[in-house]
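Handout, section B. The chain below has 577 residues.
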Amino acid sequence: MNVSRLANGSRVAIIGGGIAGAGLAASLLFNGRARGCALDVRVYESGEPGTIAPPAMLTPECRSRLAALGCRVPPEWRAHELRGVEILSHGNREVVPSSPGGLWVVDGWPQGQGGLALVREVLAGAAASQGARFVQRHVDRVENQPAAPDAPAAVRKNGPLVVRAQGSGERFHAAVLATGAGPSLGDAFFPGFKPAPTVAAVQARLRHASPRLSVTPLARLWLSPLPSVDGLLLLPGAHSVYALAFGATVTPADLCQVLMMAARDGLVEEGFELAALETTRLPYGPGRTLVAPGQLAVGAAAFGHPLQMGLSETLASCSRAAVALLDAGLEGPALERRYVREGLGELLEDSAAGARAVTWLRRAGRRAPQAFLSARNRGSSGGMGGGVLGLSSPTPLALLSSARWAGVRETMASWVRTTVEPLPATIPSLEPDLYYIVDDDADAREAMTQLLESTGARVVAFADELALFCAVARRPPTAILLDVVLHWVDGLRLCEGLKQHPLTRDTRVFVMSGLNRPHVRQRALDAGAEAFLPKPVEPERLLRLLMGHVAAGAPATQPHHASPESSVSDETGRYAS
């Protein structure tokens, strides 16, 4: 058999059984059969499945690509159709409408599978019906080991590439990496392999306590809500909301804090619970070295950017890879020319532009939403790459141009502009004798609740912190008792977030902690807390602070034994050394 070109009986290994892996298997077998070439395709479904099942966004182009691969698109996938994406940044917002034909959100969670799993299942079924075999094995490495001249003919005809998976090894003529943007094989795929760079992300599923969920026809992209978060995507489904936050240093605590801010501002419904949360990675530009003799990478392992939410680009790379493997042969230079330069050229350019656009959108600040509309007015994509956020337009290149100009204008305007923070149209009145307690310790919550209620006060106790921002914005209390150690976000960050927003900044916050250390006290005061109370909290001191019998910020020059005020000042931490 000629090892420089795929022929009848050639064996191809696909590493990764997700959308890219199943899509490539279907495309290889479909195109091979059209050329009279029957291939032996093996798909290695490696890696542990995540706890989050993301939904899928299907554009008209994506649905056409699925149909071309022999996939039947179920009519029920059209149950939830978006009319556009709302872009928000620094108080400004604009809606970018979806293209004619609709933007479908496919999702069966929590009753069934997530949308990506449903689409992958359809693709895998199309590939299996054409002869692809799916195996549950984790691939450790791929070795280029041509068989020895004296090896048996059965060994020599099976190709030079050895795929090592959980202690076993099988020979193939070609191997394709389709593992996504997660952990990559790196040099274990081939020496010098440089996949797409990635950026940190956190994803979650929001579920509401009540069965009532008003499904919004808009997805939302909130740009730079926190210094550590470049963007937050909120994608509504029939029974839940999918949330994705991305940024170089984003953490699960960042996502939780932004979600509380979103609930406060009415971007998500009140009363949500985090049903699932996990960290992940997103592609952040094009890979640099994607091809070796008989080997290449597809999908998010090869390119992508955080604003690429549709599946069209991934499926396009699968079809280009299949054509390149079948027509260009297995030699490295031929594959490089046919697959990378001719096949992926536009997609690689778009991924680089999309990653750079994220940086400029952050710099654009309040002008970012208008930058999306300006870019959209330049026209939709006419090439292989689609638009950002699953839309037909704007394209990544058009968005980069508009975002760069908006970023430059915002930077220049900031030199001469006096910042005036926008105030809400209505600010709820403070409710006297209403106190909030946030503590994950049930005994401590109950004890403080009984203590305050004994004085005639009304108390709302929270077992976790997720509902706090929304509650404070709608019913400002007299004061908040906030524990430092909580489930999702620490109390110091919550205090800081409360003090930064005009709806909640005037609320008195008292931070409590069993970590009675000077640096913890100082951090609480720096975050805006009125006082720091070491645990266990002394009831008399707590009541003196809350009921106004003693000023929390008594002058620090008084000696500790001079008066009751100085003892209170010591407990607040303002004199901690």
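Note. The first helix runs from residue 19 to 34. Compare this with the example in section A.
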